[in-house]
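Intended use. Records such as the cellulose 1,4-beta-cellobiosidase (non-reducing end) entry shown here are meant for training and evaluating sequence-to-structure methods. They are not intended to support clinical decisions.
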Amino acid sequence: MKIVTLVLFALLGYALGQQIGTNAPENHPPLSIQSCTSPGQCQTQQASIVLDSNWRWTHIVSGTQNCYTGNKWDTSLCPDGVTCAKNCALDGADYQGTYGVFSSGSSLKLNFVTHGPYSSNIGSRLYLLESDSEYKMFKLKNAEFSFDVDVSKLPCGLNGALYFVEMDADGGTSRFPTNKAGAKYGTGYCDAQCPHDLKFINGEANCEDWDSSPNDPNSGTGKYGTCCTEMDIWESNSISTAYTAHVCTVNGQRRCEGKDCGDDSKGQRHDGVCDKDGCDFNPYRLGDHTFFGPGSNFTIDTTQVFTVVTQFVTNDNTDNGVLSEIRRQWIQNGKVIMSRNVTVGGKTFNSVTDDFCNTQKTAFGDSNDYEKRGGHKKLSEVLDQGMVLVMSLWDDHAVNMLWLDSDYPLDKSPSAPGVARGTCPTSSGKPSDVESKYPDASVTYSNIKYGPIGSTMPK
């Protein structure tokens, strides 16, 4: 569901490249985070962020001619994936001027529409780096992760997402020698949707069978997708929020083709290696319509900043146990707020467990792909290996973000269990509308902390 677009003009064309260009320097904006051992006992760590390579200018190695312009490949430079990887270089990014990305201390602000000198940028996707050439790997089993977030400027149709994916720490350079850019240039993305819009996968261009998007002038889809397990800690605007676990049968980032990708367009959504729907906890969808929203009449008032705490509990409360529960707490105006109980299928829940997932899928009439692909046990194994932190802001050219904040799917009655997900009208969320009406939209993530369960909470 993480589809983002980039509007390009003049001489610039943005794509993922595998060689390293020299036309613009790549300077990673710093972002501090904290590692905690107990409440009030946290140490600051200096990290940095890197822009996903799909946003970057890609050109011939020895010049400025574009390899990809608008939503089309230059077939003379990219007749096939291997040749394209040899011909094309990936360049550095102007984070503020071109992409509207601002970091200061422990705060990261992502602007929605940014009008740069050569282009207008829509949204962004960034990763947290441990060093200049490696992503930071988070191992969160029997641990918790917290951050502050400001979604007050995110209307219907937008999604400020903070999540973890099973990417390679080096961005794929060790597995795929044709990828010379690596994590330093934001390569190697994957998620449970097995996206086909990545312009390079496994160090090769995804130009084979490339189909330019009919409703997005800067995007398209290739023959291959890129799959991996995904833990959506946070997908939200000011109206609705959800946290969702997705698992895949494959280990680590894997390129897919055919049925393994689970493509919607071929009616194979539930046949691929990944659970695309995931097991989600959206308070509104679960019947709690007063928990999250703009104004003091909601438990969490989205006109103000708040803290989100996610705990990954094991069956024996040790690092060696198996993940058994994903628990959510909130802090706003100094008050710790527990997720409220919801009733699904005659049972009461306030967290994500295998029992919750199974009960919810049955009650909502959804395919239980989460259980079929391993459920919490599979996610537990991935958490042991470590996952990369992703922070993004995007609009949805597929279904207008209705799956998050409105009634979805549209062919079911809004009164059917699980269909109503928020108060946004079903006519909302069209990218052309949100981009023109809300160019100043933004999301701010700050005060990222991690450590043993309870350690990031107030003293």
